[in-house]
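Practice problem: predict the structure.
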Amino acid sequence: MKKDDFVKKLDDAGDAIVTYRSQNSRRLKYNVCTSDFDNKYIQSKKNRAKPSQKQVLLFCWDTDSYRLLQPDNVTYIFDNEPRNKEIIKRMYDVVEKDYNLVVWPDDMRHKDINDMIVNGMTKLEVQTLISKNTFAKLEALTKLNYYKKC
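Answer:
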């Protein structure tokens, strides 16, 4: 994904859970991040990170720190709404651009990550579910074709 596209999507979403693969460990990481630095609290934090042309600087609320993120390492996670034509269209767009995508399993009864947590799933269970259901390219397209109900 291009840096500008990622920044626009993040700006549209406001604060967002960003799932990405760590450059060093290659493990999936999850942070609640923002690219809006107008907040006085964020402005009071020291930042030594300098983004390159391929990186985006974000502030992560859950770690209380700045992060440099490469948009290519991001995984898209949409609500579990297989009958929603708009969401399905956006999911196909993500696959078409060769980005990582979570395609929820058929037996998934929760609408979104918030619903999972409210209904008692642990952070580890949610992370495992995301990891096991993250796909790209042809595999994502195949899973998405079986997932959609519209």
